[in-house]
Automatic annotation (TrEMBL):
PPR repeats lie at residues 155-189, 225-255, 256-290, 357-391, 458-492, 493-528, 595-629. Keywords: Repeat. Signal peptide: none annotated. Transmembrane segments: none annotated. GO terms for molecular function: RNA binding; zinc ion binding. PROSITE patterns: PPR. One of its GO terms (biological process) is RNA modification. PANTHER family: PENTATRICOPEPTIDE REPEAT-CONTAINING PROTEIN. This is DYW domain-containing protein. Residues 67-87 are annotated as: Disordered. Pfam families: DYW_deaminase, E_motif, Eplus_motif, PPR, PPR_2. Residues 673-765 form the DYW domain. InterPro entries: DYW_dom, E2_motif, E_motif, PPR_At4g14850-like_plant, PPR_rpt, TPR-like_helical_dom_sf.
Length: 765
């Protein structure tokens, strides 16, 4: 259908019951703009290629004489003079009465009186009435449209109020359509008109409209207005044309703080936080005083780039000025200190806030989550619930992440229930966080359910479910999910391929792994990172190809880190390759000489090979270097409470009951054929003490606690900070069979799903 702004006017004025006839699609608005503003009137110049791939679209081309076929500004008849305005008396001054209206009913009563007395023809009175209906009482926007449609001679201020109302009501398309109507009516737009139109075009991400409006700005000679120039900077930054916005900014003769804030916001919107910090340095050199908006944006940037020094300077500046900071500014300080790792300072500021909104709570919870203070994050979330502050998406994502780290399945399930009960919008970020949480808690079926129910997915959603399947021992299912991702034309990224290569490793798909590794750069232009090389070493090691893995590391185009060598060392333990293990440890000691687990692993390899002297030498080397073994720690959640156990722990209030149950459990396991593996116990202890020592490992204590406090048949879920030792792995397989329990253990490397005496890792971890 051919759209015209004239038909919009007629439709609105004839069908007063249908006050929203504007086009609903951005492309229709663009077509309308091209009808209303043909190139002969306003023709923005296309971008010139610049250093950053973009340039400026700032000029407008106009002819000296108007084309014969157009009646648009500035070549049209002037507006007919309005009839004499009714006199406004002081006794019942409508403007004064309007300013005192407190409710929409008061406005409606006064509206009727204004029509009756004829004061509606006074543009100032009409403007005040429109502002009340469109801005002060935004739910009365339809009534504002009715008033506007009956104005005989609307002026620019009336259009501006309506456009502001539509923008505030999140109806930018209606605002743009009204701007187009303004161009057809004999009303000349002013700076505020262009500002509203530019804001709406940026909200729609309608680049063509924004360019055209910029051309009109130049045509009508308002490009020198600082007000309009600031809006132009904001619009181009919203379109992603930051270089263009910066050129407009640099060309300004005088830049007030609003202009600086527009540029800060542009860099922030495009994620260039380092440039925000750098630009603020320029602002300080010019001795321009920042306002609160400036400080909030720069503090956010400091948190993103980890610039604690600048953040502390801003905090000192706030104290020096002596003005009491607003809640938003204090929240920005909490966020900055939290992201920079200064959690105690952040918490002091947070606790000192007289009023805390959801943003403040979320900032503190996110900080705890970022720095792995997950228990603090969950405790603070509980306080937030007691304070009756409804959480938002950011809160939920952080809480779910903390639950995932702790393996707190019940806590995370409550969050999921809260989201559904309160009908919170399931955004891509929230859905992906739920998938990640369930996968990291070993509940991969629930992760798949969330994934399938998501209406929209991004590449991260696919990557998380692929990695989750791989880590939970479902490598072939992960590969199938990747194939489905490709069929749905979702382009994988480097994170996706970490999951794919992990899946090949866990499933023994060596040939497929090589093919996917080559496909990264060949088909997708992705340069492999150290994580991808680590996956390949793990894949070769799992397949028993120790020499090939060793050679692969030596020929890597980037220097291998300790994790890559540690992966090879773990493979050597499984396959008993002492020579390569010794070389791997030599490289690890050069990179991370204080890591106790590597010495213990090689000591275990020596012990398995019967080289007891070498095994004892490794333990002595640890003592000589002052390296202490990291204590094993296992977590279990029962009835929403997280319980923590260390090896030979006696701090738990139920420790006596637990150790009695451990002894009983070990007797039952031995009766079923279990033989304790004491190779990793203290070498200077006798055999009986060794057996007692391994029976008191943290995961065994946690499992016994789960057996005591959960119903028969209930799945027991454990999270451990270290790699599961050989004895605990063998014992847990036997426990799953003897006690008829599924046991899910997440150690430092992967998930272990123990069922009926076997493990999903196939005894390789």
């Amino acid at each position: 259908a051919q759209f015209s702004t004239t038909s919009i006017i007629q439709t609105q004025r004839i069908q007063n019951t249908n006050l929203n006839p504007f086009p609903t699609r951005t492309e229709d608005l663009v077509r309308l703009f091209r009808v209303a503003c043909p190139p002969a009137i306003c023709k923005p110049i296309a971008f010139q290629a610049g250093a950053a791939g973009e340039g400026m679209r700032v000029a407008a081309v106009s002819s000296s004489t108007p084309p014969a076929t157009t009646s648009l500004l500035p070549y049209r008849h002037k507006q007919p003079p309005p009839p004499p305005l009714p006199q406004v008396g002081t006794a019942r001054n409508p403007k004064s009465l309007l300013s005192r209206c407190k409710t929409i009913n008061h406005v409606r009563q006064l509206h009727a009186d204004i029509i009756k007395t004829g004061h509606i023809r006074n543009p100032f009175v009409a403007g005040n009435l429109l502002e009340l209906l469109a801005i002060t009482f935004p739910d009365a926007m339809d009534e504002a449209g009715l008033v506007f449609s009956h104005l005989e001679f609307p002026v620019a201020a009336h259009y501006n109020v309506m456009m502001r109302g539509y923008t505030a009501k999140d109806s930018p398309r209606d605002a743009i359509a009204l701007f187009l109507q303004m161009l057809e009516d004999p009303v000349e737009p002013d700076a505020h008109s262009f500002s509203c139109a530019l804001k709406s075009s940026s909200r729609l991400f309608a680049v063509d409209l924004g360019e055209g409006i910029h051309g009109l700005v130049v045509k009508f000679g308002v490009d020198g207005s600082a007000f309009v120039r600031n809006t132009l900077i904001h619009a181009y930054a919203s379109f992603g044309y930051v270089d263009s916005a910066r050129k407009l900014f640099d060309e300004m003769a005088e830049r007030n703080v609003v202009a600086w804030n527009s540029m800060f916001a542009g860099y922030a919107k495009n994620g260039d936080w380092a440039e925000v910090v750098r630009l603020f340095g320029e602002m300080r050199v010019l001795d321009i005083q920042p306002d609160e908006v400036t400080l909030i944006c720069v503090l956010t940037a400091c948190g993103r780039v980890g610039d604690l020094g600048l953040g502390e300077w801003i905090h000192g500046h706030i104290k020096e000025v002596g003005v009491k900071p607003s809640r938003n500014l204090v929240t920005a300080l909490v966020d900055m200190y939290g992201k920079c790792g200064q959690l105690d300072t952040a918490r002091q500021l947070f606790d000192g806030m007289p009023e805390r909104d959801v943003v403040a709570w979320s900032a503190m919870i996110s900080a705890y989550n970022q720095w792995s203070r997950c228990r603090h994050a969950l405790a603070l979330f509980n306080e937030m619930q007691i304070a009756k502050v409804p959480p938002n998406e950011v809160t939920m994502v952080s809480v779910l992440s903390s639950c995932a780290v702790l393996g707190a399945l019940e806590n995370g399930k409550w969050v999921h229930f809260y989201v559904e009960k309160n009908k919170l919008r399931m955004t891509v970020n929230l859905g992906t966080a739920l998938i990640d949480f369930y996968a990291k808690c070993g509940s991969i079926d629930n992760a798949l359910k969330v994934f399938e129910r998501m209406r929209q997915r991004n590449v991260l959603s696919w990557s998380v479910i692929i990695q989750g399947l791989a880590n939970n021992g479902q490598g072939r299912e992960a590969i199938a999910m990747f194939s489905r991702m490709q069929k749905e034309n979702v382009k994988p990224n480097d994170v996706t391929f970490i999951g794919v290569l992990s899946a090949c490793s866990h499933s023994g798909l060596v040939d497929e792994g090589w093919r996917y590794f080559a496909s990264m750069s060949k088909d997708y232009g992705i340069r492999p990172r150290i994580e991808h090389y680590g996956c390949m070493v793990d894949m070769l090691g799992r397949a028993g190809m120790i020499e090939e893995a060793h050679c692969f590391i030596k020929n890597m185009p980037i220097p291998p880190n300790a994790i890559v060598w540690r992966t090879l060392l773990a493979s050597c333990k499984v396959h008993g390759n002492v020579e390569v293990a010794e070389d791997a440890l030599r490289h690890i000691m050069k990179l991370e000489p204080e890591h106790s687990g590597d010495y213990i692993l090689l000591s275990s390899i020596y012990a398995s090979a019967g080289r007891w002297d070498d095994s004892l030498r490794m333990r002595s080397e640890m003592k000589k270097r002052g390296i202490k073994k990291i204590p094993g720690c296992s977590l279990i959640e029962v009835d929403g409470v997280i319980h923590e156990f260390f090896a030979e722990d006696i701090m738990h209030p139920q420790s006596k009951e637990i150790y009695v149950a451990v002894e009983d459990m070990m007797q039952k396991l031995k009766a079923s054929g279990y033989v304790p593996n004491t190779a990793e116990a203290r070498l200077d202890a006798d055999e009986e003490d060794k057996e007692i020592s391994v029976s008191h490992h943290s995961e065994k204590l946690a499992i016994v606690f789960g057996l005591i406090h959960t119903l028969p048949g209930t799945t027991i879920r454990i999270s451990k900070n270290l790699r599961v030792c050989n004895d605990c792995h063998s014992a847990t397989k036997m426990i799953s069979k003897v006690f008829n329990r599924e046991i899910v253990v997440r150690d430092r490397n992967r998930f272990h799903h123990f069922r009926n005496g076997s493990c999903s890792c196939n005894d390789y971890w």
